[in-house]
Amino acid sequence: RHEHDEKYGHVISEESMMKDLQLLKECNINAVRTCHYPNDELWYELCDKYGIYLVDEANIESHGMGYDLDKTLGNKPQWLAAHLDRTVRMTERDKNHPSIIIWSLGNEAGNGSNFYATYDWIKKRDASRPVQYERAELDRNTDIFCPMYARAWQMEEYARNHKDRPLIQCEYAHAMGNSVGDFQDYWDVIERYPVLQGGFIWDWVDQGIAQYTKDGKKYWAYGGDFGPANVKSDNNFCANGIISPDRRPHPAYYEVRKVYQNIKFKAADLNRGLIEIKNDFVFTSLDKFNFSFVIEENGKEIKSQSVEKVNAAPQQTQVISISYADIKPKPNAEYFILIKAATKENSEALKAGSQIAYEQFKLPIEWKQPTAAAALGELNLSAAGNQISVQGKDFSIAFNDKGWLSSYQLSGKEILKSPLMPNFWRAPIDNDYGNNMPQRCAVWKHATDSSRVLSKSSRKVGAMAEIKILHAFLSVSGTWEATYLIEPDGKINVTHHFYTGHKQLPELPRIGMSAKLHAEFNHIQYFGRGPWENMSDRNTAALISRYSLKATDQYCLYVRPQENNYHTDLRRFALTNEAGLGLMAVGSPTFSGSALPWATEDLDDGEKKDQRHITDVSPRDFVEWMIDYKQMGIGGDDSWGAHPLNKYRLFPGEYKYQFSLFPMRGKGDFEQ
């Protein structure tokens, strides 16, 4: 945690410290590293009082000198006094704070004789606490192996071969912009091995300074916004927290809170209503918390109840039984149970009723019913020149000369502002720039522009109209086959089949469809993961439920504009106007997507980062709708080269996905 305030820089008020403590407690974070210097003395007093473990770090960093023994200041005798001075002053000032459980010799300053001396001095002065130093690696002058940005597989490799020193990463999960992907994957490994004992996320708060445009709109300035234009900077590299400069949680904050929770729930036997609860607390019994559950049917609550007599001791498990036999399933409905734990009483940092743990399970309740036959009615199918149109009672659908769905008129209103077309691109996130994605994957950015129609057909199939179009995507040696089966009520069943055998191509940032809708269709209802943004490798915390909002209520989530406000595991996603008129996408079975009041290109800096801020993105006269098979993960193992894990990437090959577009004729149609 860097000491940072959006108004006063590194001058921190008690109010700001208390806000941090509250957010840390609510996030299930139990320890803070005072990087890269001893903090304000008040911070230690507050951590003593409210119960936060601290790694107290000496104000020693000489990163720029390099780590080689003949270069680092850590191995030059003339710098011994300076190293000892800062180490001694920190230890003597802070030694009586019980919140400090580990001393740190410094940050990224090489290793050598000076650090052997500072380690030896602390161990002689205070034998009660371990000492850590990242650059010592496995040398004698660290009691903890504390690497930076080790991958999960590297942590597991260490655990299999070492038992003498615990591994606690001094920095991991680089939280720059839209990041902290595969965090659950990290902890699946960490929790398997006792020698793996966690890590310190880099970083706590975005280090941005509040500034205002001439018309009073707030944004956060960062590196490059200060001083002459020719002064080098790291751009927004210090905007790498899980909360914004004004202490507003980012979506990653909620993922961390979920993964870090000390009460774990496991489906023991859901057919019998059995759920195992594990108490990962070291000192606290579960009788300090209230437990309850909620059952939802297609995202709407149908039952809630408290759970009594949960009292597992620390490090113990308990199995509870939940009855749901009274639920009468509806055809093709999904049922999810959410079990949660909340504090019983007020504490110094948390109010009574604060939720500290939860888990969601899909219940084994099913009543499968065949899809209803196509609605009765007449369709008029016509093909004139290169255009294809289908007309029904109160709607008309058109495909343009390039074969894309270009018009959907419902009750006399045109919904589409631009065609529904394949899309393989996302606005680069900070981690993308770090691994050179904007240049490496550039072939996918405008791949649709190279499309050519190879074949096109239209015919009546009973009461329905079938449109089949085969496209060649020349720039990526691929084909895209689209089949649209249009029913008399205006429903379109869509099947997409994409293939490229060009295995030398880079991964795809996204596979999906996008269209722009007229601005009035900005009312969103969806049944999927939410309410906050979630990505394929960061959705453990997001609950499958029903949510509603306006596209224009969304805002850029990060200090520098980039991909944002995305959702995964969508069952339904509707965009309507005030009267409830619009379109709804329904997955077969699920899809991912978003609906934003600006375009992808508004968030895209190009091949290299530009000096941009949240005030540079304004709502447009449309809503951009993404209906995706998937978007690749965001990663976050680091932000200067690491890729998302392979299981969250989209490599060239064959992909097929289906969804249906339903006309929404009124506000109640989402229920249908």
Q: What can you tell me about this protein's structure?
A:
The chain is mainly beta and 672 residues long. It has three domains: 14-254, TIM Barrel; 263-362, Immunoglobulin-like, CATH 2.60.40; 380-671, Beta-galactosidase, Chain A, domain 5, CATH 2.70.98. 14% of the residues lie in helices and 34% in strands. The chain is built from ten helices and 32 strands. The strands form seven sheets. Strands 21, 22, 23, 24, 25, 26, 27, 28, 29, 30, 31 and 32 form a twelve-stranded antiparallel β-sheet that branches. The protein has a five-stranded antiparallel β-sheet with strand order 16-17-18-19-20, with no helix packed on it. The longest helix has 15 residues, at 80-94.
Please describe the topology of this protein:
Blueprint: H1 14-26, E1 31-33, H2 41-50, E2 53-57, H3 80-94, E3 100-104, H4 113-125, E4 131-132, H5 152-161, E5 167-172, H6 183-190, E6 196-201, E7 209-212, E8 218-221, H7 251-259, E9 263-269, E10 274-279, E11 289-297, E12 300-307, E13 317-321, E14 335-343, E15 355-362, E16 380-384, E17 387-391, E18 395-399, E19 405-410, E20 413-414, E21 416-423, H8 430-434, H9 437-440, E22 451-461, E23 464-473, E24 478-486, E25 492-500, E26 510-518, E27 523-530, E28 543-550, E29 567-576, E30 581-596, H10 600-603, E31 622-631, E32 654-665
Parallel strand pairs: 1-2, 2-3, 3-4, 5-6
Antiparallel strand pairs: 7-8, 9-10, 10-13, 11-12, 11-14, 14-15, 16-17, 17-18, 18-19, 19-20, 21-26, 22-23, 23-24, 24-25, 25-32, 26-31, 27-28, 27-29, 29-30, 30-31, 30-32
